[in-house]
Amino acid sequence: MRTDLFQGHDYFNMDDLLTEEQKLIRDAARAWVKQEVSPIIEEAAEKQVFPKHLLPGLGAIGAFGPYIPVEYGGAGLDQISYGLIMQELERCDSGLRSTASVQSSLVMYPIWKYGSEAQKTKYLPKLATGEWIGCFGLTEPDHGSNPGGMITSYVEDGDDVILNGAKMWISNSPFAQIAVVWAKNEEGRIHGLIVERGMEGFTTPTMKGKWSLRASDTGELIFDNVRVPKANILPEKSGLGAPLGCLDSARFGIAWGAIGAALDCYDTALRYSKERIQFGKPIASFQLQQKKLAEMITEITKAQLLTFRLGQLRNEGRATTAQISMAKRNNVDMAITIAREARQMLGAMGIMNEYPIMRHMMNLESVITYEGTHDIHLLITGMDITGENAFK
Ligand SMILES: Cc1cc2nc3c(=O)[nH]c(=O)nc-3n(C[C@H](O)[C@H](O)[C@H](O)COP(=O)(O)OP(=O)(O)OC[C@H]3O[C@@H](n4cnc5c(N)ncnc54)[C@H](O)[C@@H]3O)c2cc1C
To answer: Which residue ranges make up each domain of the chain?
Structure first.
């Protein structure tokens, strides 16, 4: 079992910009991760299991719906606090952050923003504590980057609808109690439905064989004539903009989370470089290794500044989808580059599970693909600055 020696790195005194409450929330999340998750994360990733015993703890540190109002069981925090919690979780493992992101931004957020009062009261408090876990079904086997082409659909039948179709690559699906599922109605318009485990014809097979995000469960959602009460349809928003609004919130969390993974790789490589002796000197004294470290902390610092400003804009309700896209794309790319460089700095030791770098590196291959691929985010920026849509 590895001792977690991580220390934060704050080259541009970003802490001066945080409130006392934000620092307390960040430090509490960091302490919980060090005590409860770091000792078991390598084994969970190796065995490819999500450590479910962590769910109440994630609820207790406010990782489930940090910005959901207190009246619905959330922590009522601001967006920067949400970001800081995601940073601390992904500092340990992207899979841990994924579980919290999905629950917060892809399940609680749509219920809070688009749900009825009865839906909010029924689901949000249990989701906030981790008693219930949710998942988000948008991607289909034949519709990933183009979710608007989905074929999952429902027809009305009295007070219910009958749902048919399949979703793939769904985080948390194998053990989730509920799924927020995006499906087309008879007119072809996309709506969100809350599907509960136990509804007849609804199954959630696990997807095995991932070399990435191994400590996060991924599965399918299969709907075979599932009867869902109309009362489970999210009434306040429909159309593709509804799921995309959830993705804005999740991508914002990923932009912060990726900084956490990068910090952990940098911190590990910096410490190792001071201890590892070659040619009679610590490798930290060689210019080539210093170049790697100097570029890492420069890129981390730029990402921290970008993301803090994005947090301010989001707190003011002014962050655009394109701004969030840019931050997600930049920060994940930054983190994966740092992970690859850091792995090389550890030489052969870099491939071992004694250090977290290889796990981060493999995890980030999912993070750079999900919630909009690296390419798709570039196209979003391109469309925003030119007014031309290059998707089709
Ligand atoms: C571990 C994991 C967990 C996930 N969790 C969830 C979840 O909880 N819920 C959910 O709904 N989904 C989830 N996803 C799915 C994820 O969002 C999709 O994988 C992603 O949107 C990409 O879709 P795709 O894999 O079908 O790739 P495709 O869309 O088939 O893309 C393949 C390649 O083509 C490129 N491409 C596609 N369109 C264009 C274009 N117009 N121009 C240029 N290049 C293009 C892409 O950039 C990519 O490189 C998860 C995925 C992973 C790996």
So the answer is: 14-133, 135-232, 241-386
C-alpha 257/C-alpha 93 separation (Å) is: 9
- Residue-level pLDDT at 366: 98
DSSP at 233: B
> What is the position in ligand 1's atom list of the atom closest to the CA of 372?
21
Per-10-residue mean pLDDT for the chain, 392 residues long? 88 98 98 98 96 98 97 97 98 98 98 98 98 98 97 98 98 98 98 98 97 98 98 98 97 98 98 98 98 98 98 98 98 98 98 97 98 98 98 88
241-386: CATH superfamily: Butyryl-CoA Dehydrogenase, subunit A, domain 3 (1.20.140.10)
Pocket test for ligand 1, best of 369, 374, 388 (most atoms within 8 A of CB): 369
Nearest CA to ligand 1 atom 7: 170
What CATH superfamily classification does 14-133 receive?
Acyl-CoA dehydrogenase/oxidase, N-terminal domain (1.10.540.10)
Q: What is the pLDDT of residue 37?
A: 98
Q: Buried b vs exposed e over 97-136: b needs ≥16 C-beta within 10 Å?
A: bbbbbbbbbbbbbbbbbbbeeebbebbbbbbbebebbbbb
Closest ligand 1 atom to the C-alpha of 139? 11
Best residue for ligand 1 mutational test, from 103, 107, 138, 139 (most atoms within 8 Å of Cβ): 139
Distance, CA 370 to ligand 1 centroid (Å)? 6
Q: Which residues are catalytic?
A: 371
Distance of CA 377 to the CA centre of its chain: 16
